[in-house]
Write a structure and sequence with these properties.
Elements: H1 2-19, H2 32-35, E1 40-45, H3 47-50, H4 55-64, E2 67-70, H5 76-79, H6 89-100, E3 104-111, H7 131-148, E4 153-160, H8 173-178, H9 182-193, E5 198-203, H10 209-224, E6 231-234, E7 237-238, H11 245-257, E8 261-269, H12 284-291, H13 300-319, E9 324-329, H14 362-371
Parallel strand pairs: 1-2, 1-9, 2-3, 3-4, 4-5, 5-6, 6-8, 7-8, 8-9
Helix pairs in contact: 7-9
Bound molecules: (3S,4R)-3-hydroxy-2-oxopiperidin-4-yl beta-D-xylopyranoside (XIL).
């Protein structure tokens, strides 16, 4: 009997040992930081994310990213809606989120024709202001914003999208009122406001040789004047049929040969067809179906090509280390991308590095397998 009792006791002890949770090795979650040892991966964040309304995306960013850019909250129409009124609420949330998560922050952007508050270039009658008024407004705008975030924001896109694809100056009101001089003026005001921050030019379609030549000329001019310019930003909004890789790489090389760093600042790649302005829009329903071919998910065949293209893009980036210090993706997951609504509204797009389920795209998993632990 005694024998049976001790056996039962042993059995009970064994059962208890089995059901007691055993210590497990800590789960190792691969981080993008491991896959990109040579440059920082950044992401553009929305107000919603920094405000705490998108906690899954916020923790994904905190896990993988050390560098953030303000997607909209520092643009003139948001931060300086009226001449005598700044609204720092959204930008302050961006900076708070960055500081709390120990991230490097890039301000975007100081002088840009788009998303500029309507008052900026006109007088009370709606007529273009005189050059001295515009100079004063630019200086006041740039100085106020830089001073507010001094010591916290690491760098600024000073002038965005100044040059057209044919290499000529975009005829924005800045150019029409001040001529070419508005670019060095913007850099001068930024440098005078805070000589410690990095200052950038930024534009899209950088594979255009004519555009590259004009930017090289602008950079030489800034340097001759003793002004600070730290890098040329290639926005890198790509598609399934652009950019032309040879010309894209030639553009990167042209800046590196000039002794100026290049960074890739708004990376995304549309998986849907590129919209050409000449498209026939007589049958809107058929046209929309043609423009939005993957509303229920990206077919594997398209996904494979998309992933190959993103790998190709990164192979170019990798060749220019150490002259590339940052690659910033323009949004967190496909669901967050502005491309769902641009250049036409209501498409289901797949341009970013994480899918709608917050999962890494295959090219990133491959990269982690190659470079990560
Ligand atoms: C886009 C934002 O992502 C959208 O949310 C907004 O509605 C429009 O602007 N070039 C730029 C970015 O420099 O600021 C733009 O961002 C995308 C194109």
């Amino acid at each position: 009997m005694k024998h049976y009792l001790s056996l039962a006791l042993l059995g009970l002890l064994a059962l208890a040992a089995c059901s007691k949770p055993q210590p497990q090795p800590a789960e190792v979650i691969p981080s993008l930081k491991d896959a990109f040892p040579d440059y920082k991966i950044g992401v553009a964040v929305s107000y919603d994310l920094t405000r705490g309304n998108d906690s899954v995306a916020a923790s994904l960013v905190a896990q993988h990213i050390k560098n953030i850019v303000a997607e909209n909250c520092m643009k003139c129409e948001v931060i300086h809606p009226e001449e005598l009124r700044y609204d720092f609420d959204q930008a302050d949330w961006f900076v708070k989120y960055g500081v709390e998560n120990g991230m490097q922050m890039i301000g975007h952007c100081l002088i840009w024709h788009s998303q500029c508050a309507p008052w900026f270039g006109v007088d009370r009658r709606g007529k273009p202001v005189k050059p001295e008024v515009l100079r004063h407004r630019m200086k006041e705008h740039i100085t106020t914003i830089l001073k507010r975030y001094e010591g916290r924001v690491h760098a600024w896109d000073v002038v965005n999208e100044a040059i057209l694809d044919d290499g000529s100056y975009r005829p924005s009101f800045f150019y029409q009122i001040l001529g070419e001089e508005y670019i060095p003026l913007a850099f001068q005001y930024a440098y005078e406001a805070d000589s410690t921050v990095e200052l950038y030019l930024n534009d899209y379609a950088m594979s255009s040789p004519a555009k590259v030549q004009t930017y090289l000329r602008i950079i030489r001019d800034l340097r001759q004047r003793g002004l600070r310019i730290d890098a040329m930003g290639f926005q890198s909004h790509m598609g399934m049929d652009h950019p032309n890789w040879e010309r894209f790489e030639a553009a990167v090389k042209a800046f590196v040969d000039e002794g100026i760093d290049v960074q890739f600042t708004e990376v995304d790649m549309s998986a849907t067809p590129t919209i050409h302005e000449s498209a026939n829009i007589s049958d809107t329903v058929a046209y929309m179906a043609q423009c939005n071919p993957y509303p229920d998910g990206l077919p594997d065949s398209v996904s494979v090509v998309w992933n190959e293209r993103m790998t190709r893009f990164l192979s170019i980036v990798d060749r220019y280390v150490p002259h590339v210090r940052r690659v910033t993706v323009w949004g967190v997951t496909d669901a967050h991308s502005w491309k769902n609504d641009w250049p036409i509204k209501g498409r289901t797009e797949y341009p970013l590095w994480f899918d709608r389920q917050y999962q890494m795209k295959p090219f990133l998993r491959d990269r982690l397998a190659r470079y990560g632990e």
